[in-house]
Design goal:
alpha/beta; Rossmann fold; 5 helices
């Protein structure tokens, strides 16, 4: 599979690159500024401005799937996913996986976590940005998946994490960046969670 990864030099992005290469996939990595991908010596990331429509279209040439591990400013997230979904549709790419946050998962009552009284106020703005990304994906025709972790940290995945669609896992804990990278690759290879948000947590 030929996979374009945006945000390739970030905490989750570089781990996904390593896992995808090791699994035999071809990756085409992009980032905002940096070119070195931590833990990957075979290839460097190409700086790309998502405002440049021609450059994005060229970046997606021959690609089978897109992974967005883009961070940055809150306002950039909605724009970035809008650009990627638009150009993916133009190029006939149907599969896209994006990273969001736990705030847009549903609680047991059906209400989003970010709207619950216990949800930290300082996380609401970034959760609102993730919500806008989710809405953009919902309105697209893509086979999207949005993985929504809580607090992420360093460490090597053993694959022993929990995950489920749409609703926050009970007793949800933090998760490793590498677990998220592991699940992204699983979703691509096994066609999991099509057009779904995904909760992920340590056991």
């Amino acid at each position: 599979m030929k996979i374009a990864i945006f945000g390739a030099t970030g905490d989750t992005g570089h781990r996904f690159c390593r896992r995808a290469i090791d699994a035999g996939h071809q990756i085409v990595p992009f980032s905002f500024r940096r070119t070195e991908i931590n833990g990957v010596i075979e290839i460097q990331s190409t700086p790309l401005d998502l405002n440049d429509d021609d450059a994005v279209l060229q970046a997606l040439e021959g690609v089978d799937a897109i992974v967005s591990a883009i961070g940055g400013e809150k306002n950039s997230r909605r724009f970035s996913i809008a650009q990627l979904t638009k150009h993916a549709t133009t190029k006939g790419i149907t599969r896209l996986i994006s990273i969001g946050g736990a705030g847009i998962l549903s609680s047991s009552t059906g209400e989003l976590l970010k709207n619950q009284s216990f949800y930290p106020d300082f996380l609401v703005p970034i959760s609102n940005a993730h919500y806008e990304v989710w809405q953009a994906l919902e309105q697209s025709t893509l086979q999207w998946t949005m993985i929504c972790p809580g607090v992420m940290r360093e460490g090597l995945s053993t694959g022993s994490y929990r995950h489920q669609a749409t609703t926050s896992l009970p007793d949800m804990k933090g998760i490793l960046y590498d677990d998220v990278a592991h699940l992204i690759l699983e979703c691509l290879e096994k066609k999991l969670y099509i057009r779904n948000k995904v909760s992920i947590s340590n056991p």
